[in-house]
Amino acid sequence: MSSTRLNLDAAFSALADPTRRAILARLAKGETTVLELAKPFDMTQPAISQHLKVLEDAGLIVRRVEGTKRPRRLAKAGIEALDQWLAMLRRTLEKNYDRLDEVLATIDRHKKGETR
Asked: Digits of tens for pLDDT over the chain (116 positions)?
């Protein structure tokens, strides 16, 4: 998968797991190694590595090679793509609420006009 393209299905599937969300939350604080990521979880390093693979395949994290270490960090492009998609939903909801406010204000004006 291209690092600049996000598969929303894969991203949301990856986010469905609480361990992977916790990993992303930890990586939001900065790059770290698999061993550091595994510390707060009651699971093996291979299990954590599998979660990391899912997050990498979804385009949400990237790794780099530093000698024998493979530190992970958030994938800027993947997180931004998710944010843009969610922003589109927020804008749509805001428009819907604005239209609802207009309809309610019109109803309110009509009621006030009828009672006078």
From this structure: 443 356 889 999 999 999 999 999 999 999 999 999 999 998 888 999 999 999 999 999 999 998 888 999 999 999 999 999 999 999 999 888 888 888 888 888 888 876 55
Domain, as residue range, for 65: 8-115
Please enumerate in sequence order all residues whose Cβ is within 8 A of that of 5, keeping only pairs 6 or more positions apart, or say none.
59, 77, 81
pTM, 2 dp: 0.75
Residues in the chain: 116
Structural domain count of the chain: 1
46: its two tokens? 């291979």
- The answer to whether 24 touches 59, Cβ cutoff 8 Å, is no
Residue whose pair of structure tokens reads 């693979």 in the numeric block: 53
Q: Would 2 be classed as within a structural domain? A: no
